[in-house]
Amino acid sequence: MPTVTFLPSFRKAVVDREGTLMEAALNAGINLNVVCGGQGKCGKCVMFVKSGVAEFDRDQFGRFFSPEELESGACLACQTRVIDDASVFVPESSHIQEQKILIETLGLETEFHPSVWKYPLVLNPPSLDDPSPDLTRLLWGIEKKGGPREGKIYAPLEVIRSIPRVLRDSGWKITATVALVPGGYRLIDVEKGDTSSRLYGVAVDLGTTTVVVFIRSLVDGRVVGVASNYNKQISCGEDILSRVNYARKGGLAKLQSLAAESINTAITRAANQAGVDREDIHEVVIAGNTIMTHILMGIDPAYMIEEPYVPVVRRYLTAAASRVGLEVKENAGLFIFPAVSDFIGGDIVADVLASGMSESSEVSLLIDIGTNFEVVLGNRDWMFSCAGAAGPALEGGEVLFGMRANPGAIEQITLDLETLTPAYRTINHEKPRGICGSGLIDLLAELLRACVIDRTGRINTVIAHPRIRLGPHFPEFVVAWKEETGIGKDIVITENDIKNLIMSKASILAACITLMNEAGISRNGIDRIYFTGAFGNYLSKENAIIIGLIPEVPLERIRTIGNGAIEGANIALVNRKKRKQLDEIARTMAYIELNATPSFMDEYTRGCFLPHTDLSLFPVVEKMLDECRIHRG
Amino acid sequence: MTIRTLTDWTGVVGTVMLGATAADGGTRSVSYTLGGESDLPFLGDPPSGHIPLVAFELCDDPAIWPAVVREYAGDLSNDPGKWAKAAEADYGADLVRLSLTSTRRKDFSGYAALKTTIQEVLRKCRLPLIVEGSNDPSIDSEVFAVCGEAGEGERLLLGTAEAGRYRSVAAAAMAYHHAVVAQSPIDINLAKQLNILLHEIGVPSDRIVIDPYTGALGYGFEYSYSVMERIRYSALKGDTDLAMPMISAPTDSLTVKEVRDAAPAARQDIAVKWEYYTALSSAIAGAAIVCVRHPRTVPLLKDTLAALWSGQTPGKV
Question: What is this model's ipTM?
Fold first, then answer.
């Protein structure tokens, strides 16, 4: 089998003959930037073959490169087959870089009603006058301390086995841990001495790409540690579909253990930061999308991606955390958020909980934007939800100079409407390397205001301006000249990029409008719009309306709730009353299958226009566009 | 029989004037007002609006023209001026549509010849004229400028604007006071978007004729029918972005498999029938102008439309 040497790190890996460079890179522990999951669509996993034998189809994929780059061996790692030993150079930009992972939350205040308690007890040793058994003695002690009644607490066998020794070794000074589980109370641990101050719980957002963990004290509810990292399953496929396909090919166990490992890594990091022993973590609450939670629980997701798209389980799940491989206290409880459907998972239920929309009489529209989007509309009495694919454009995929929110990404842009000179801000104030989603939305809105593009997004090449030019394939607008950039190339946005962005935004707007039509609600009937997820946090609300990503409502009605999934998981961790509402939220939420809604395609086409075909739905934007047109003559 | 529609539509299809007579400074023998309908097609006694017009379509380079037409027209097809005259005098068409197929040739540069051809057609035929220009963005601007100028004062209908290339034809239409065909691919929303784009660069509504794109009967026609119906409904319901008259050009109906594979003796008849039924259905769907390419289709269609318009049963086809 051929060996591949990766430069400049000189890491080596063996790969099957005709295996891809990407597989070799994974074997070498190199995390590549693969937005499309290795389909040769995103052009991000660039490598340069320096020597050796590897096959790369330039006819099909050469379009990502200039002739000079091809000359120096440029290829896409996912599409290059290794025939014999080779050495390849991996540019910095092909590595996954530190991404802004969203752990900012609203910091909602919620009441503190934990589901796990510690009772420090000093018991009287048994005597001939007081011969009650050890367990009874212990449970009475709990009851006397204000805990649940003795007969209400279930004691599992492994805890009972540990009791006689712990009681006597500690001189009858012990701490009992009791958890509220479905069906009643459970004695989950008995420790020597008074450990009552060491009681922690973990809230987890298990995302397809990232994992975020909060450790909280369950004595007072305080946050003691926060950490995040990539979901290690990325090595088995970037997007959710490729994960399910991986599971189908016998990879479920590996995906399951990678999910647990990803959570463990984040917990360890947060615990170390907080000085917490993982053995003192007695509860784990996880919100994730339906497929992620199925995989974590070791439930086969294979049938969820086929018609009629049914999950195995929708209700909330509980188990001992150790059973899925989480390295916390052995008997610690695990609570998994309930889901609504295959495509509306516990993460969205958590978003809803975090937004508070399920407790309000106001009608809210909650939007989670990513490659896949989810939309929920409703209030405490009713809720509709839907999900769909927006394509990767808003996350920087399928856009020539699109990138994720990594350092050097242009995240904010304004155009001088007279000179068309852009003013931009990049992440970490580095030289620009590309444009991330929030920057792309700004750019689209600004180009529209400047009348550089028409409402279908086509660039008006009649305008004579050095920034407006015919690119190799499409007309394009130069955002940054190569002298300004960190990549030695002009950063441009092409008409094709704009088309992809418009198709993405149209699907999200069409989903919102489809739900509004189902519910008979006009844009004026929306009291709140909540953006959740990383994307919503950095985006300009005004520009999101100008391009018609969301229905037009007064700006003050739009809120971003940051990472709603982790926020919701936190709430459920510390407030059992809210946790009890989750199943009800999941049940209330009707799922609308967009593909089965005939008007959706019509709405989509109507949305493939900036901001929308019917400007009466966007009166403020209409006024703004009129002014811009008058201004431009 | 009068059918009363049980709706309370208040919208009216807007009007577009085609052709300028001497009174308007042109040289056409007649001018037409398209549109003005306040009801569905052919309803009411008399029906609202105007009877659908039949345009005979010819070209300046018959190489890519349907074989059945070349066969039937013979030498005439090589002389656009004479052919246009025949359309008026012999076929009885209401309008002529001149398709500048010469512009489809590779490396086209015969702009001067285009001008001559258009002027020749205008001189030999006094009917209002539709000119169908190039469909290549790299020559559009020059071609439409030539078309616009050659027909100045005649109130032509210039085609075709599409979402991807509308600026050149719109600019020529505005500069020389012509109307524009706005074509979108069988989708009501795309039709509306194109009209908005044209508005936004200054083309007024009374100079836009919607071409919703017509597939031949048996080759997607039902989609076109449905879109035309929806466009008319939207206009009647007050959507001013869609309240323009429509033109239908089922240009593929003479090259469908059934015509190509027909026995030589029957081919002309089948071709005419195919075109006739497609065009008639388009008129019933709401087209104000139907374009046909076979000379024999013209009188057939005109008779049927006149009969339908007056509430009689049409004769034998």
Answer: 0.86
